[in-house]
């Protein structure tokens, strides 16, 4: 008998019919004799709807504690509905909010981190033969305030519960049948991966593949939780996220391509090139609580240099204001910005043992006449910033160049 944590995302519980289907599925697992803890998201669209209401009530700037108080209600609805549907099928079940389980988090509202999970109540229910349905995305801080874990946070609830309960597997059920070489909604030739390492999945998630929340992958890697991504309503083995990165013969150089449109680029030109210049420019940016991603400083001409960096698009205006002040203070020539950019990244542990990956990437982009504005690399990834309108073309070209395309089906 196994203990399995199953997480169902927003579209999988988006209607009553779907909730009934989830209940049927959970019932089948129970009938196999497995102990089941289910984590559910809010119905699809609900979290967005709630955030929108909050913005309307607060001139676009909701107080973070109150926002969490409200958005956590989305998941409170679905846990109760699923528990009812299970009970209706003769499956004993009980639902709990994060607070009731006691998923203890820090007090960083809207992006709280899980610190500890009490497993006592859940274990007692499992021992009594009940399916336990837990609200995803939420917890409670030391002071009893309700917190939420950031968008997509139900994945993290699932993995954290699996770690705390030492579950045999954490299954993330969603609207695609696994992790693909790239977002299958953007590239029709994308291929499902049977396996991907934690390390690669973490890069993919960090670089924009929203199929799993970044923190859920961090958690799974840290506590070695067997993690699988599966389709909610189709049979199949999905994708296993594994520790194992043993070099097999067919190990591809690149496992996947991630992308995001969430960044904006800022440039400051004609900066007097003296020691400490990077600090003078980026110090005030981080002082304003803005995270910087990619950074490029050009070689200096006539003792002045240009400096370019990217930030999240939501922080663009704030960063631009800060940079303008800095430019005046240090006597730089001009400041400019661009929000029409996108970041495309290739990810793969196979890169470690292969030379020439970067040039192959740049060649594929050059063939499509796509200009690269910025580049950054690490051991297992290469990212480029390009003009946003070329994003899909770039992803498709790279997908083909690195031989990731699914074989054409007969007749195609
Ligand atoms: P859920 O509501 O179940 O949490 P999400 O929308 O958060 O679902 O995540 C699933 C979506 O992730 C898919 O519909 C797909 O468009 C997107 N996605 C992005 N990159 C990938 C990838 N590499 N593999 C699979 N899905 C991906
Ligand atoms: N409902 C939350 C969101 O939409 C959490 C989740 O679905 O994982 O972000
Ligand atoms: Mg999700």
What does this protein look like?
It catalyses: L-aspartate + ATP = 4-phospho-L-aspartate + ADP. Residues 266-340, 346-412 form the ACT domain. ATP binds at residues 7-10, 174-175, 180, 185, 210-211. GO terms for molecular function: aspartate kinase activity; ATP binding. Its EC number is 2.7.2.4. The protein has 412 residues and is an alpha/beta fold. It has a domain at 3-175: Acetylglutamate kinase-like (Carbamate kinase, 3-Layer(aba) Sandwich), CATH 3.40.1160.10. The protein is built from 13 helices and 20 strands. The protein has helices spanning 16-31, 46-57, 64-71, 73-88, 98-101, 120-127, 154-165, 198-206, 214-222, 277-287, 316-330, 357-367, 391-401; strands at residues 3-8, 35-40, 93-96, 103-105, 114-117, 131-135, 138-140, 146-148, 169-174, 195-197, 227-231, 239-242, 256-260, 263-272, 292-297, 304-312, 334-338, 341-347, 374-378, 381-387. Strands 3-6-2-1-9-11-12-10 form an 8-stranded mixed beta sheet, sandwiched between helices. A hairpin with an 8-residue loop joins strand 4 and strand 5 (114-117). It is globular, with a radius of gyration of 23 Å. It starts with a strand and ends in an 11-residue tail after the last helix. 42% of the residues are buried. The structure holds adenosine-5'-diphosphate, aspartic acid and magnesium ion. The site of magnesium ion has 3 residues, from loops.
